[in-house]
Design a protein that fits this description.
This protein is α+β, with helices and mostly antiparallel strands. The protein contains 5 helices and 5 strands, in the order βββααβααβα. A hairpin with a 2-residue loop joins strand 1 and strand 2 (10-17). Helix 3 packs across helix 4. The N and C termini lie far apart (35 Å).
Length: 158
C-alpha cells in the first residue's frame, strides 16, 4: 500500500507492506492510497502510523520513529542503514565515521553509495551524514531539504 502525505518540506510518498514501512521519498506525483482490504490491513496501519509520526517530527514533537521498517538492500547496505538509525536526533556524522561503526573503515565510498540507496528517507536519517570537514554533502532531495531537516533538528552550523 502507498499514500502521499503533506509535510512542511513538500509532498512525501510513503509505502508499506505487511512487515513495515518500505519507502519514504518526496512525491513526484500525487499517489492515491490503495483500497483497504483484509490483505493489506497491516500495511495500512503502518502508513497511518508513519503519517502521524511524520506530523509529530515536523512539529518538533518527535525525535525517534517507532514505525516498523522493511527496507530492501544488501547485507552491507542494511549494516549502513542500521548505523544511520543509531545516529541521534540533532547530531551529524561523516561517511568515514559510519564506515568505522560497521567495522569497514576502508569502505567510505561504499558507505556513501549505501547512504544514497536508502529508500526510507528522514526515518533512516541519511540527511544527518555530512562531509568530514563539516560541509553539506549531496542529498537525493537537494541540499535545501537537507539543510531544512538539519535545522529542524537544531544541528548547529546549518
Amino acid at each position: 500500500m502507498a499514500k502521499t502525505v503533506t509535510t512542511q518540506v513538500g509532498e512525501i510518498y510513503i509505502k508499506a507492506n505487511q512487515f513495515g514501512l518500505s519507502h519514504l521519498s518526496l512525491a513526484d506525483a500525487k499517489q492515491e492510497m490503495s483500497e483497504q482490504t483484509a490483505l493489506n490491513q497491516q500495511a495500512f496501519s503502518y502508513l497511518m502510523q508513519t503519517e502521524k509520526e511524520l506530523e509529530e517530527y515536523f512539529a518538533g514533537q518527535r525525535q525517534h520513529f517507532s514505525v516498523p521498517l522493511a527496507p530492501k538492500g544488501t547485507e552491507f547496505q542494511t549494516a549502513v542503514w542500521q548505523a544511520l538509525l543509531a545516529l541521534e536526533y540533532g547530531t551529524t556524522s561523516c561517511y568515514a565515521d559510519i564506515a568505522n561503526k560497521i567495522n569497514r573503515p576502508k569502505a567510505v565510498r561504499a558507505v556513501g553509495a549505501a547512504n544514497g540507496a536508502n529508500a526510507i528517507a528522514i526515518i533512516i536519517p541519511c540527511h544527518r551524514v555530512i562531509g568530514k570537514n563539516g560541509s553539506l554533502t549531496g542529498y537525493a532531495y537537494g541540499l535545501e531539504m537537507k539543510k531544512s531537516l538539519l535545522k529542524l533538528e537544531n544541528c548547529s552550523g546549518f
